[in-house]
Specification:
This protein is of the alpha/beta class. About 30% of the residues lie in helices and about 30% in strands. The protein contains ten helices and 16 strands. The structure holds NADP nicotinamide-adenine-dinucleotide phosphate.
Length: about 350
């Protein structure tokens, strides 16, 4: 089968940082599904895993954790899907990724593809939707109830892949006032188009801009970019007894004591936790992806796709990785169609 893979971890400008290769088609076991991959999306995790280092892989390593495709075969214990079903999923970071014509994936982390949108539009969603859903509802514990007392949610990094779906899920399912951050006209307009109630610039003082709106504290903060940089600001803006969730690992160290006087809770969100540790509730990712598909199909939220590259090959994936590495992506980049033989 066709795949894009690496053996050496090289800067993205290097022609061998990602290679077009031919690999053996996998076979599904247990609760796995064999998927014919139709479209994939790229995420910063791909560039972080690919980041230059001296290690050399013995076998080709396939990256990519976001795909749409068709179920071609099911493992003997699979029961949630059947051959021919259209699905979308992010997959497991510890397994080969989706940058291949065929992939096996545990059915408990797979959802049905939304029927009302194209493969490319659907491929933009799974990894970021899982992250946003788990961050907003499992970690920040925001009530999925539009009748509750309105509260303020600050989303730092609103126009990125995760922010683009987090803004929409928060507006569609909860009663929060969404304050998103963006620093450029294009990303500000994108956040507004997705339903953000207020957009503030993360390259200037968030405290000053938010307080200028007569909002002294925010109830929730979802940090989707540069946790180190925003830590003191988050400590200042969070309401006493509020909740902060970050999805971005620290580059250095931060002072957890800044949260003590306010009895603030801080939590991490990693969307791979359930699949990495095969937690008891791993099937919740199947349920939440189905719920996201339903929200797309009933028009409550829309795709976050912003750019499509075709075909799926090493050259286009190198282009997509380079764009992600700029840190300036708005919405999602998707690749579709395998090259003809
Ligand atoms: N833990 C998890 O499960 C998980 C899951 C998904 C992603 N992540 C991580 O979360 C981060 C965001 O992912 P993503 O897919 O949303 O990324 P992305 O699409 O690459 O994010 C790009 C956006 O980041 C914004 N940005 C750049 N610098 C910023 C800063 N200093 N402060 C605030 N925003 C800034 C940019 O806005 P402007 O252009 O307006 O400046 C741009 O729109 C990445 O580090 C990724 O690895 C973690």
């Amino acid at each position: 089968m066709k795949a894009v893979a690496l053996k050496a971890y090289l800067p993205i400008q290097h022609p061998e940082s990602l290679l077009d290769v031919d690999l053996e088609k996998p076979t599904p076991v247990g609760r796995e599904l064999l998927i014919a991959v139709a479209a994939i999306s790229v995420n910063p995790v791909d560039t972080k895993v690919r980041a230059p280092k001296s290690k050399i892989e013995t076998d080709f390593r396939v990256l990519g954790w976001d795909a749409v495709g068709t179920v071609l075969a099911t493992g003997p214990e699979a029961s949630l899907f059947k051959t021919g079903d259209q699905v979308f999923y992010a997959g497991n970071i510890a397994r080969p990724g989706s940058n291949s014509e065929f992939q096996v994936v545990d059915e408990r982390i797979v959802g049905r593809k939304p029927v009302s949108i194209s493969n490319a539009e659907a491929a933009a969603l799974p990894l970021t939707a899982i992250t946003a859903w788990e961050g907003l509802f499992d970690r920040l514990q925001i009530a999925r109830d539009k009748q509750t007392k309105p509260k303020n949610l600050l989303i730092i990094g609103g126009a990125g892949g995760v922010g683009s779906i987090a803004i929409q899920l928060a507006k569609a399912l909860t009663n929060v006032n969404v304050i998103a951050t963006a620093s450029r006209p294009e990303s500000i307009a994108w956040c507004q188009s997705l339903g953000a109630d207020l957009v503030v610039d993360h390259s200037a003082s968030l405290v000053e801009q938010i307080r200028a709106q007569n909002i002294h504290y925010v109830d929730y903060i979802f940090c989707l970019n540069n946790t180190d940089q925003h830590w003191p600001t988050m400590a200042e803006l969070i309401k006493p007894q509020g909740l902060i969730c970050s999805i971005v690992e620290l580059a250095g160290q931060v002072d957890l004591n800044l949260l003590k006087n306010k009895s603030v809770s801080f939590s991490w969100e990693l969307m791979f936790t359930r699949s990495l540790f095969e937690t008891d509730d791993i099937v919740e990712q199947h349920h939440l992806l189905n719920r996201v598909a339903q929200l797309i199909d009933d028009g409550s939220i829309k795709t976050t796709l912003n750019q499509v590259l075709s075909p799926i090959n090493a050259e286009n994936l190198r282009t997509a990785h380079a764009q992600l590495e700029s840190g300036r992506t708005v919405g999602k980049i998707v690749l579709e169609h395998w090259p003809a033989n």
